[in-house]
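To: structure subgroup
Subject: Chain for Friday's discussion

All,

I'm putting the inputs and outputs inline so they're searchable in the archive.
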Amino acid sequence: MKNNILCTLCVLCAFLTGCNEKKTNNTIPVNGDSTAVVEETIADTLLTKQYSGEQNNAMGDYRVTMQFPVANDDNAILVNSIREWISEQMGGNYEGKLENPEDMLDFYLKDIVKTFKNEYGAGETETQMNLMDHRRITKTYENSRLVTWLFHEESYMGGAHGGVVNYGQTFRKSDGRRIGWEVFVSPYDENFQKILRQGLVEYFSENGERISEEQLSEYLQGEATQYYIPLPQCLPIFQKDGVCFLYNQYEIAAYAAGMPQFVVPYKKLKSLLNVTGRQLVESI
């Protein structure tokens, strides 16, 4: 995969080397020891503190790492919005106080182990399955108007290979509003469709050989091969150089295709943003 297809947030390390999968240069996820790099130093940087936990039993390995926002008198609404999102990404059934990250982490780690035990009997007897569930929630970009978080999960539940899931969320710092695809014009817009097709062409072009837009359908599956390219289920990931469009495994292509992703510079997107979106990125 071309080396310039970067989302410049974090580094993905393959966790199942025996799989016969297409080699990709996906850089959104975070591996065990990596930390996201905030590329700007700003006066009102949102401070965070990292919390980690893990449990192991005879059948599996379960880990959770959360980069948790620190509240002060000026950012309480924003921080509460981010903490709610973190809990929702982890399952959404934690009823404790959002300002207690240790309790939240402990709750969800135990919940993961319980779920695996109920579904797969994990921990009852030792086998060669080596089940796993590793989750990491990280701040990946911030400027004076917005901050972006990423949920990354690697799991193996038996079968031929494991899976990776990524979901991003950008927050408006002034009021904690969650920013999604609603700040863009309709995905049916031909100019928007052109950007999506061009980004995917770049992703699937490799070894110096560029595929054509006509050939693109050969690499896609499902709805993406019909009338239009759908938007990713992962919300737009705002970062320094543009918006990262990231499709998860199986979303529009086969497992071997990895996670199709590409970055579109803000200058190419501004005409496709509504007023809310343009105001959000006008200083970038």
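Points worth raising on Friday:
The longest helix spans residues 101-120.
The helical segments are 76-90, 101-120, 190-204, 213-216, 266-269, 275-281.

D.
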